[in-house]
Amino acid sequence: MASYTAYLSIGSNKGDKKENLDRAIDHLDRHPLIAVQKVSGFYKTAPQNYEDQDWFVNAALKIQTRVSDPLDLLKILKEIESQLDEHGKAFRFGPRKIDLDIIYFEDRILNTPCLEIPHPRMHERCFVLKPVCDIGARTVHPVFKVETVTLLKAIENQEGQEVIPL
Fold this sequence. Notes:
Shape: globular
Mean pLDDT: 91
Structural class: alpha+beta
Order of helices and strands: EHEEEHEEEHHE
Protein backbone atom coordinates (compact mmCIF):
# COMPACT_ATOMS: atom_id res chain seq x y z
CA MET A 1 0.00 0.00 0.00
CA ALA A 2 1.27 3.48 -0.87
CA SER A 3 2.57 5.84 1.78
CA TYR A 4 2.39 9.63 1.75
CA THR A 5 4.46 12.23 3.60
CA ALA A 6 2.77 15.06 5.44
CA TYR A 7 3.93 17.78 7.81
CA LEU A 8 1.66 18.80 10.66
CA SER A 9 1.66 21.74 13.02
CA ILE A 10 0.60 20.95 16.57
CA GLY A 11 -0.17 23.40 19.35
CA SER A 12 -1.79 23.90 22.76
CA ASN A 13 -2.40 26.81 25.11
CA LYS A 14 -4.69 25.29 27.75
CA GLY A 15 -3.80 23.02 30.65
CA ASP A 16 -0.49 21.13 30.60
CA LYS A 17 0.52 22.23 27.11
CA LYS A 18 3.52 19.96 26.62
CA GLU A 19 1.57 16.96 27.95
CA ASN A 20 -1.26 17.80 25.52
CA LEU A 21 1.22 17.70 22.62
CA ASP A 22 2.78 14.46 23.86
CA ARG A 23 -0.66 12.85 24.09
CA ALA A 24 -1.62 13.99 20.58
CA ILE A 25 1.66 12.67 19.16
CA ASP A 26 1.00 9.35 20.87
CA HIS A 27 -2.55 9.21 19.45
CA LEU A 28 -1.22 9.93 15.97
CA ASP A 29 1.53 7.33 16.21
CA ARG A 30 -0.89 4.67 17.45
CA HIS A 31 -3.31 5.30 14.58
CA PRO A 32 -3.17 2.33 12.15
CA LEU A 33 -2.81 4.60 9.09
CA ILE A 34 -0.21 7.01 10.51
CA ALA A 35 3.44 6.71 11.59
CA VAL A 36 5.18 9.69 13.19
CA GLN A 37 8.63 9.94 11.56
CA LYS A 38 10.08 13.09 13.14
CA VAL A 39 9.13 15.51 15.90
CA SER A 40 10.53 19.04 16.02
CA GLY A 41 11.63 20.85 19.11
CA PHE A 42 8.89 22.29 21.32
CA TYR A 43 8.53 26.07 21.38
CA LYS A 44 6.76 28.63 23.52
CA THR A 45 5.05 31.01 21.10
CA ALA A 46 3.06 34.21 21.26
CA PRO A 47 -0.63 33.97 20.30
CA GLN A 48 -1.55 35.27 16.85
CA ASN A 49 -4.78 36.84 15.57
CA TYR A 50 -6.46 36.81 19.01
CA GLU A 51 -3.76 37.99 21.41
CA ASP A 52 -5.71 38.10 24.71
CA GLN A 53 -4.86 34.52 25.66
CA ASP A 54 -2.04 32.45 27.11
CA TRP A 55 1.07 31.68 25.06
CA PHE A 56 1.16 28.40 23.14
CA VAL A 57 3.48 25.46 23.01
CA ASN A 58 3.96 24.48 19.36
CA ALA A 59 5.82 21.79 17.45
CA ALA A 60 5.78 20.15 14.02
CA LEU A 61 5.59 16.53 12.95
CA LYS A 62 6.65 14.68 9.85
CA ILE A 63 4.34 11.73 9.34
CA GLN A 64 3.91 8.90 6.90
CA THR A 65 0.33 7.98 6.20
CA ARG A 66 -1.47 5.44 4.08
CA VAL A 67 -4.32 7.94 3.73
CA SER A 68 -4.17 9.16 0.13
CA ASP A 69 -6.76 11.95 0.45
CA PRO A 70 -5.78 14.94 2.65
CA LEU A 71 -9.47 15.43 3.51
CA ASP A 72 -9.50 11.95 5.06
CA LEU A 73 -6.36 12.83 7.03
CA LEU A 74 -8.10 15.99 8.24
CA LYS A 75 -11.00 13.86 9.53
CA ILE A 76 -8.55 11.73 11.52
CA LEU A 77 -6.92 14.86 12.98
CA LYS A 78 -10.31 16.30 13.97
CA GLU A 79 -11.25 12.99 15.64
CA ILE A 80 -8.03 13.10 17.68
CA GLU A 81 -8.66 16.73 18.64
CA SER A 82 -12.15 15.75 19.83
CA GLN A 83 -10.82 12.79 21.83
CA LEU A 84 -8.27 15.00 23.59
CA ASP A 85 -10.47 18.07 24.06
CA GLU A 86 -14.17 17.35 24.22
CA HIS A 87 -15.00 21.08 24.51
CA GLY A 88 -12.79 22.26 21.63
CA LYS A 89 -12.05 25.92 21.08
CA ALA A 90 -14.83 28.38 21.82
CA PHE A 91 -14.10 30.55 18.75
CA ARG A 92 -11.73 30.83 15.80
CA PHE A 93 -8.14 31.50 16.91
CA GLY A 94 -9.25 31.10 20.55
CA PRO A 95 -7.62 29.07 23.33
CA ARG A 96 -7.49 25.34 22.75
CA LYS A 97 -6.17 22.24 24.43
CA ILE A 98 -4.94 20.78 21.14
CA ASP A 99 -4.78 21.98 17.56
CA LEU A 100 -3.59 19.82 14.66
CA ASP A 101 -3.12 21.35 11.20
CA ILE A 102 -1.87 19.94 7.93
CA ILE A 103 0.94 22.15 6.63
CA TYR A 104 2.14 20.09 3.67
CA PHE A 105 0.80 16.89 2.12
CA GLU A 106 3.38 15.65 -0.37
CA ASP A 107 3.67 18.51 -2.89
CA ARG A 108 -0.07 18.86 -3.34
CA ILE A 109 -2.02 22.06 -3.68
CA LEU A 110 -5.60 21.81 -2.46
CA ASN A 111 -8.21 24.49 -1.98
CA THR A 112 -11.57 23.36 -0.61
CA PRO A 113 -14.01 25.10 1.76
CA CYS A 114 -12.70 23.04 4.71
CA LEU A 115 -9.02 22.52 3.84
CA GLU A 116 -6.25 24.39 2.06
CA ILE A 117 -2.86 22.81 1.44
CA PRO A 118 -0.26 24.10 1.85
CA HIS A 119 -1.61 25.81 4.95
CA PRO A 120 -2.74 29.26 3.75
CA ARG A 121 -1.12 31.29 6.56
CA MET A 122 2.00 29.22 7.25
CA HIS A 123 4.31 31.74 5.54
CA GLU A 124 3.14 34.42 8.03
CA ARG A 125 3.78 32.36 11.17
CA CYS A 126 7.14 31.66 12.78
CA PHE A 127 5.38 29.30 15.20
CA VAL A 128 4.71 27.05 12.19
CA LEU A 129 7.85 27.67 10.14
CA LYS A 130 10.48 27.29 12.88
CA PRO A 131 9.33 23.82 14.01
CA VAL A 132 8.87 22.65 10.40
CA CYS A 133 12.40 23.83 9.66
CA ASP A 134 13.69 21.67 12.53
CA ILE A 135 12.56 18.56 10.64
CA GLY A 136 12.19 19.68 7.02
CA ALA A 137 13.94 22.98 6.28
CA ARG A 138 14.46 22.03 2.65
CA THR A 139 10.83 21.14 1.97
CA VAL A 140 9.58 23.25 -0.92
CA HIS A 141 6.37 25.26 -0.66
CA PRO A 142 4.43 24.05 -3.72
CA VAL A 143 2.83 27.44 -4.43
CA PHE A 144 5.73 29.83 -3.72
CA LYS A 145 8.38 27.39 -5.03
CA VAL A 146 10.82 28.24 -2.23
CA GLU A 147 12.21 26.20 0.65
CA THR A 148 10.53 26.49 4.03
CA VAL A 149 13.74 27.88 5.54
CA THR A 150 13.55 30.80 3.07
CA LEU A 151 10.01 31.57 4.25
CA LEU A 152 11.22 31.54 7.87
CA LYS A 153 14.15 33.87 7.19
CA ALA A 154 11.77 36.39 5.60
CA ILE A 155 9.76 36.86 8.83
CA GLU A 156 11.73 35.55 11.81
CA ASN A 157 12.75 38.98 13.11
CA GLN A 158 9.31 40.58 12.90
CA GLU A 159 7.68 41.83 16.09
CA GLY A 160 5.09 39.45 17.54
CA GLN A 161 6.81 36.38 16.07
CA GLU A 162 8.55 35.18 19.23
CA VAL A 163 9.43 31.48 19.14
CA ILE A 164 11.28 30.43 22.30
CA PRO A 165 12.75 26.90 22.59
CA LEU A 166 11.46 24.96 25.61
